[in-house]
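Thread: "does anyone have the structure for this chain?"

Original post by V.I.:
We have the sequence but no experimental structure in hand. Need at least a predicted one for the grant figures.
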Amino acid sequence: MATIIDSNLGNMLYRGKVRDTYDLGEGRLLMVATDRISAFDVVLPNGVPDKGVILSRLSDFWFQRTQHLLPNHMIALADDSQALSNLPDHPLISALDDEIAKRSVIVTRAERIDVECIVRGYLTGSAWAEYKKNQTVFWQKMPAGLSEGYKFEEPLFTPTTKADQGHDENMQISDMESLVGKEMTAKLKDKTIELYNFAHDFAYERGLILADTKIEFGTVDGNLIVIDELLTPDSSRYWDANLYELGKSPPNFDKQFVRDWLNKTDWNKEPPAPSLPEDILTSTRERYLEAQKRLTGTVSS
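Reply from O.Q.:
Generated one for you, tokens below.
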């Protein structure tokens, strides 16, 4: 799905790996979740059909269910006519076609905190790679003999830089404190883990394990809120709880499937990335839909 918005109607502020952001004025933004997909911090040439719809719906689902833990930037889905009737008119919103509208959300504009707040509940992904090499995770010495998929006694907070271009890099807590201050670092850590624990328990009751996730934050009038997306298959690692087995990589419902395919190619993980075959795109879409179905009870159409 190509995101095409009349430049005379909308002022694009930012094009991310997946989302395009437009200024609506009056402290509001339009965020369009495209079907683009990234892996290893590189946007792939072809997108996953309906991915943007799933991301917008699933983020809205989680925003509603976690707002008691921390407020978020969500105002309305861009195709929610009832919610839109309570908002000021804007020609950009009125001009959206159905395909773009159902991939879009209207949010409160915030001051972004330039840190990727990552929490890991299980030993997998890059943490597993680091452990096998150094017996550490995020520079922390870990016990010997751990297996892939090991559940940490307490979730680990492992922030990274937020790179608009290129690869995100792991951050020492001291570096994060230098960037945002000790008080904010402690608050971000606590809230990231709190959100993760809530979502992990919620997902587990529905047959999914939330292995890890990335959460982004911002401030409005000095108050901390959650921004961007939340607990989607793009920003999280979901496993089938019924097939979880220590020492093995369980079936996943996220973009690990894409990473696994890319790892079998000779790609050096630098742009340009190879195109995904049709069967990989179809299987990825099915995984995202299955995650949405298990979590919400519905699927996007």
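V.I.: this helps a lot. The domain at 11-109 is CATH 3.30.200.20 (Phosphorylase Kinase; domain 1).
O.Q.: and The two ends are 14 Å apart (CA to CA).
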